[in-house]
Design brief:
536 residues; alpha/beta; nine-stranded mixed beta sheet; four-stranded antiparallel beta sheet; 14 helices
Length: 536
């Protein structure tokens, strides 16, 4: 594993020349304006690159055309692949929105942040936006951030175009109201029982949230303070279900084109408590319809292609402004989507379909073009990468590694970890280039997968005598990792702690999800009234 291209990625003579040039420029700038040294941000901003985070929600790693998917149309992402470095073994720190995004903006593992689920984030930490804003960056956020418990907290943003998954009120739903679409009570698609039912959007493409994020990004780029470098985080809600896209995007792909889900023999042995729990509350635990599953994938791909179109628009504007090569662009997602693979849906698993994500980086100053890097990486690496591009040191309390140093091989990344929940529902992962180890406290069970390029997890070798020593080594490594960081909650000496198993109701209708957003009970004519309205 490592980086591959038609020519070597790391050229030692070039590195020496580049370093000498950087020192010369620093001395030259200091001599030209000695007073600037004492102004802090003014000097630092002289050569700072812009930083643009493009984040999707629930996008699998295998949804980029240039990285091997022959069906999906992603010319915008393909351009990033050609022009930058693709980290093809990138994983989320936690396969759920809030915890993963918390690790993203703090550069710390979930057990360090204390946010291991869709639960409150620590409010006393300093984010990547704050660190860069302190040295003069103009910081702006657009779209879904999923900050918890204060969704409107700025976290170092000077300004925000605020929106979240729900029905509002927020800046996005205000735009719908202004355009006469306030009657749409589920602006991102109907959830609850329809959560995984593909559906056309009730909005025209020009008013859809995906277009809104693209438009707001272009607006920021055209109106920003040109005398300062910027950090802009543009965050799309899709392809998170419901899988809904506006006309014409909802017809870009059709059922007949789509492959069947990945269902290896004996796949049930890969399910954890979280898979069973998730299938139940998302109404996907009572049988399969292969045509529905293929339609689901077609709708999922459509949502990604609509996002890709916005990526292309953004790249074009940066290029037109002469800022494309002076901007560190990081495209990624907070986690993946099982999408019927293993007869499972959603995220909340460390199987590749749920935990492995796209991670594309473009910045010619530090990242080789048309290069793929197979070294394991994580969203915790985004903060140090941003600071590294800005020439800032990394604090000792951050856990990530600069992706530029991983790509060049100047730092050897040995392993990454992941976590969902804790105590009785804790799910833990240790991943290297060779193996993936998973432990589920709810099931009191381990899995060990041999990693192979371009292949989903298929069969665990945990329990096979031929891999006993490997299993023991990986278990010990993960336990020692936690112990070294002072995280003792899941541990009992040198083994995993036993917790009472979580309740799994027998009634198939128990624990299902209602996320209706806004009630419509008051809109029915006389004589009609829904018997079930969880909002009334």
């Amino acid at each position: 594993m490592g980086c591959r291209q038609g020519y070597p990625v790391f050229h030692f003579p070039y590195f020496i020349v580049a370093s000498c040039l950087q020192i010369w420029y620093a001395i030259h700038n200091l001599h030209a304006n000695r007073n600037a040294f004492f102004k802090g941000p003014e000097l630092l901003m002289a050569k700072q690159p812009n930083i643009l985070f493009l984040m999707t929600d629930q996008q699998r790693f295998d949804t980029v055309g240039a990285l091997g998917n022959p069906l999906i149309q992603t010319p915008g992402l393909d351009r990033l692949v050609r022009d930058g470095t693709s980290f093809t073994s990138a994983y989320c720190p936690s396969p759920v929105c809030v915890a993963s995004r918390c690790s993203f903006l703090l550069g710390q593992w979930p057990h360090q942040t204390g946010c291991t689920n869709n639960s409150p984030m620590p409010q006393d930490r300093v984010s990547v936006m704050e660190l860069l804003n302190e040295v003069g960056y103009q910081t702006h956020g657009i779209g879904k951030m999923h900050f918890s418990p204060q969704s409107r907290k700025m976290w170092g943003f000077e300004t925000r175009d605020y929106s979240e998954e729900g029905p509002g009120p927020d800046d996005f739903t205000e735009s719908l109201h202004e355009n006469g679409y306030d009657h749409v009570v589920a602006p991102h698609g109907e959830r609850s029982e329809y959560y995984y039912i593909p559906q056309p959007s009730q909005l025209p493409a020009r008013l859809h949230h995906t277009q809104w994020v693209g438009d707001k990004t272009l607006q920021f780029l055209s109106q920003r303070d040109a005398n300062r470098p910027f950090l802009c985080w543009s965050s799309f809600i899709k392809p998170h279900p419901p899988f809904e896209s506006p006309v014409p995007w909802n017809r870009l792909y059709r059922t007949v084109e789509m492959p069947l889900p990945f269902l290896p023999s004996d796949y049930e042995h890969l399910h954890t408590y979280w898979n069973r729990h998730q299938n139940r509350y998302k109404y996907r635990d009572q049988g399969r319809d292969m045509n529905l599953l293929r339609t689901m994938r077609a709708a999922y791909y459509a949502a990604i292609s609509f996002i890709d179109y916005q990526v292309g628009r953004i790249l074009d504007q940066l290029e037109a402004e002469g800022e494309l090569d002076n901007t560190l662009i990081i495209y990624t997602s907070d986690h993946g989507e099982l999408l019927g693979d293993y007869d499972c849906y959603g995220k909340r698993a460390f199987l590749d379909a749920a935990a492995r994500i796209p991670l594309l980086v473009r910045y010619p100053e530090r990242f080789e073009a048309n290069t793929a890097c197979d070294t394991p990486t994580s969203l915790v690496d985004v903060l140090p990468t941003s600071l590294g591009a800005a020439g800032l040191p990394l604090q000792t309390d951050r856990s990530g590694t600069d992706l530029a140093e991983i790509a060049t091989g100047s730092i050897q990344r040995d392993a990454i970890i992941g976590q969902l929940g804790q105590e009785g529902t804790g799910l833990y992962m240790l991943l290297t280039s060779e193996y993936k180890y998973i432990y589920s406290a709810a099931d009191r069970k381990e899995w060990l997968f041999r990693r192979a390029p371009d292949r989903l997890d298929e069969r665990s070798v945990a329990g096979n005598p031929g891999y006993g020593s490997v299993l023991n080594t990986y278990r010990k490594r993960l336990i020692e990792w936690f112990r070294k960081d002072g995280y003792e909650t899941p541990l009992d000496g040198n083994r995993w702690r036993d917790f009472p198993p979580p309740d799994e109701p027998e009634n198939p209708d128990a624990g299902q999800l209602f996320q209706d957003g806004r009630s419509v009970s008051d809109q029915f004519p006389e004589g009609y009234s829904p018997k079930v309205d969880t909002l009334r």
